[in-house]
Amino acid sequence: MIPVAKYHGTGNDFIVVDADLSVPDRRRFATDYCDRTSGIEGPDGPSGADGALFLALEPAFDPPRVIMTLVQPDGSVASMCGNGARVAAAWAADRTGRDEVMIDTPAGTRHAVVGDDEVTIEMGRPTFDPAAVPVARDGPMVDEPLAGLAVTAVNTGVPHAVAFVDDVDAVDLEAVAPVIRHHDAFPDGANVTVASEHDGGGFRQRTFERGVEGETRSCGTGAVAVAAVARRAGRIDDGPVTIRPPGGDLTVSFEDGRAYLAGPVVHEFDAELSPARPRRA
């Protein structure tokens, strides 16, 4: 058995594993324990998760560094996850007592600041370049009709297809999103995010995540994608702007073209899991 921790960032939840511990098959570990009906047990029964974060802490660096690998419930590895990186920063801060952490991800190294009430992480420069998203177009995809939505493609560490709508609750995301997520326009697939203006300012957000293959309560890269598309369209300036996924509010701002994502992180519980869970007959 190995010790693990369960964290969430505005409802985007993760099983956190110290990468120094032996997990022979990380993909199987993630698919088993992230399952919402039979996965990791919380205080109130099976809770599952949106992914398993394998974190290698290197405390000798100044500031400390964390090598982050996110394995999603379908066994795929995500190159970036905004809320996951914020969780990784909080986990490292708990172990080092430091309020600044560097997070090494497949999408690049990101600087995080851990405060009393929120964790802020630098998310890099959003790009609409079709080769970088990637999207199978000669130029940027902006407000292109797909599955009844006007879709703009942007990469915020992972590819997102973003559509602004009148009311996010009126969108049947489970029906519409898979069509866009697997569309030929996106050779690597895409996360699908819809957004609408909020009466109190900012934008409401819902995201269907690639790799989770369903809607999540929050998506950090999706929140940045909403802000980036809104900024490109002249709806907002460099911020800060409040993005409101179902799991809680996030704040996105920009400085010299770089996006910053801020919001709370919660340590839910600790547990012990078998690194190789026996398969059921």
UniProtKB/TrEMBL annotation:
A GO-annotated cellular component: cytoplasm
Molecular function terms from GO: diaminopimelate epimerase activity
The protein's name in its UniProt record: Diaminopimelate epimerase
EC number: 5.1.1.7
Residues involved in substrate binding: 12, 72, 82-83, 191, 209-210, 220-221
The gene coding this protein: dapF
Alphabetical keyword list: Amino-acid biosynthesis, Cytoplasm, Isomerase, Lysine biosynthesis
Catalytic reaction annotation: (2S,6S)-2,6-diaminopimelate = meso-2,6-diaminopimelate
Active site per the UniProt annotation: 81 (proton donor), 219 (proton acceptor)
Source organism of the structure: Halomarina halobia
Role summary: Catalyzes the stereoinversion of LL-2,6-diaminopimelate (L,L-DAP) to meso-diaminopimelate (meso-DAP), a precursor of L-lysine.
Family: Belongs to the diaminopimelate epimerase family.
